[in-house]
Structure formats: C-alpha cells, structure tokens
Amino acid sequence: MSAVLQHTESHPTETLHVTRLEPTIGAEISGIDLRQPLTPALRDELRRLLLEHKVIFFRDQAISTEQQIAFAREFGELYVHPTTQQNDPAQPQAHLIEAQDARKLYGPRISGRWHTDTSWLLQPTLGAVLRAVDLPAVGGDTLWADTAAVYRALPDALREEIDDLHVVHDFKSSLDKVGYDYPILAHPLVRTHPETGEDGLFINFSQNPSVIGWPPEKSKQLIERLLLEFNKPEHQVRFKWRENSVAFWDNRSTLHYPVYNYGDYPRRMERVLIAYDDIPHRAKRADAA
User: Fold this and answer.
1) Domain 63-288 adopts which CATH fold?
2) Between the N and C ends of the chain, which has fewer C-beta atoms within 10 Å?
3) What sign does the dihedral 256-72-250-23 (CA atoms) show?
4) Which of the residues 115, 131, 235, 267 is marked catalytic?
5) pLDDT tens, 254-269?
C-alpha cells in the first residue's frame, strides 16, 4: 500500500511516499532528504507516521553522524547512554552499536533477544534513530514486534490475569561495570502508550524479567508464554539493512530483535536515543472506574 502526502508552506514543496510493510507495523518513507533540516510540518508528519506505523525506515540516506543527531533532536532532547561507546567522544549522543559488544555480553554463540532500549530507566527513552555504518554482505537484519498486537493476540483469560502485573527490568550488572549507580526497577507489564492510548506489553527479555509477587516457576512460565507470542511473524516486521539505511522507531510500542547470523563480522551501527518524560503506566480502564 502506498500513499502520497503533500506539504506546502513557504518552503519548497515536500513530498513523502509512504509504503506500509505490514498491517500494523512498519513503513518505508521516501521522497525526503535527511541531510536537510526538517520543516515544522514535515517533522510533525513524520511523528504522526511514527505513531501510526511504530517503526519507519529510510533508504539511500547518506547522512553523517551530525546530520543523524540533528534529525533525532527534532523529536526531543537526546539521551546519552552510560554503557555505550561512541565513534566520536565529542558527539556522545551517537552510540556505537557493535556486534562484538553483544559477544562480550552473551558469549560467542549469541542469538538476538527481544528488547526495548533503556527500559531500566524510570523514564525510558521515547525512541531511537539507527543508522547502518558497516554491514555484512548478507545477514544482520533487525526485527520489530508490535507490542499492542502481541497483547491483543493473547487469550482473554490471560490478558485479564496479567493486566495489573509488574515486571522487573534488571540492567544492573552492565551499569555496575561502568560505575553507574541506578536501582533495579519494575514497570507495568501492560503499558498504555502516552500518545495513542493503545495498550501493549512492556517487557525486556534481555533484562532478567520476572513478575513481582509471583513464585519463580510461575513467573518463568509466563515469560516463556509471552516470548512465544513475540516470536510469531504475524506481529513482526523484518528490515534488511543496506548501505545508507536508517530506522526510526518508538520504544513505547515496539520491541526489537537483532539477528546474529553473520559470523564474526564486526557489524557496526550508530544509534541516537530520544529522551522522554513519561513513566510507564497502565491507564485506568473505564469499566474499572
């Protein structure tokens, strides 16, 4: 499905071409040059598209680190992650994401994990802009899952059982290694998106999730059941990276999964995180008022 959106101001006419990739998640955007500053109207339209599609992709964007940072800054203040290295220490907002870091963390035979960035924070980031820097010849895709679609697909009885649960997000061991003191937090398992009002699952499978107040075995069984749902292709979009590709996603409505199928190649990406002031919560339901 493709749509053409016209924007006419005092600036030159800007045309976006929007191609949906899956029914509820993912769209590819063309007709834009990310090297150029965004007009307010174009910025607002991209934010609307992000809320609608949850992750949006741009091809053939030969942008620099500075231009990537400038683009991300249009959508909010930027967050400097405490455990991630930079290509350029003078630009700490751009985080270097390298496969070798995952190998150090998870071991040489790594596989991806469904996660959302900075969920260990009291106020997790809004989203991220990720740019390909050095890619393998083949492999290294990234998947995103629609957390609301996953939640809706659960049986009614299970949704009712989990609606008021809280789940641990534990990043402490990684933070301790860099001397960053931060407590382990629990967030609602079902989170209401602060802008769309949509309910979705908020869980990080890379951060030792466990249900507050549940016995360990029961908690483990629930986590495994939820992981099965996230693994269903019906809830996902898969992006094949190529040179000059950029992805922009909403951490509040998606989880993502990096595919490690390219051996020892030093795949490198650059990520810019956008800060946000919302504490994850579940909105009060009308039938519970």
Assistant:
1) Double-stranded beta-helix (3.60.130)
2) C
3) negative
4) 115
5) 999 999 999 889 899 9
